[in-house]
Write a structure and sequence with these properties.
about 130 residues; 3 helices; 5-stranded antiparallel β-sheet; globular
C-alpha cells in the first residue's frame, strides 16, 4: 500500500517496482498528496494522469528483458510551479512501427503538462513535467 504523509512544503516521493499492478495505487497517492497540498481539481487530474502515463511507460518499455525494474517519482509544488520527475534505470526502446491503440503516452503527457522534457542515457530515462501556478 502507498502511504502518503503530507507536511507543508514537503514533496511527494515514491520509489518502487515498475509494474502495472502498483501504478494505480501510486496515482491515487499522488492525487491525495495534491489534494492535501491544496492544488486545484483540474491541475490534480492533469498531474495524476500525466504521472501515471509516465510510470506506465516505464512499466511497458524501460526494461527490455521483461523483468520489472524500478521507477521513482518526485512531485514538488511551489507557489509558482508544480514539477514532476519520473525516472527509471532501464534503457530507451524505440516504439513499434505500428503500436496499434498503444504508444500514445508521451503524446498524452505533452498535452497535459505545460513543459515536458525526456532525457535518455545508458543509466535510464527521466521524464520531467511542469505546470505554472501563477
Amino acid at each position: 500500500m502507498c502511504r502518503v504523509s503530507i507536511t507543508d512544503g514537503e514533496p511527494f516521493r515514491w520509489e518502487g517496482r515498475a509494474s502495472a499492478d502498483r501504478l494505480t495505487e501510486v496515482r491515487r497517492a499522488i492525487q491525495e498528496w495534491a489534494r492535501r497540498a491544496g492544488l486545484p481539481a483540474d491541475l490534480i487530474e492533469a498531474l495524476a494522469l500525466a504521472s501515471y502515463e509516465a510510470m506506465a511507460n516505464v512499466a511497458d518499455h524501460a526494461y527490455a528483458d521483461g523483468s520489472p525494474g524500478t521507477v521513482s517519482v518526485l512531485v514538488s509544488a511551489s507557489p509558482k510551479a508544480l514539477d514532476v520527475l519520473v525516472a527509471d534505470g532501464g534503457r530507451w526502446q524505440a516504439p513499434d512501427a505500428d503500436p496499434g491503440f498503444r504508444g500514445r503516452g508521451l503524446l498524452l503527457i505533452r498535452g497535459l503538462a505545460e513543459d515536458v522534457t525526456v532525457t535518455s542515457t545508458d543509466q535510464g530515462t527521466t521524464v520531467r513535467m511542469s505546470w505554472r501556478r501563477d
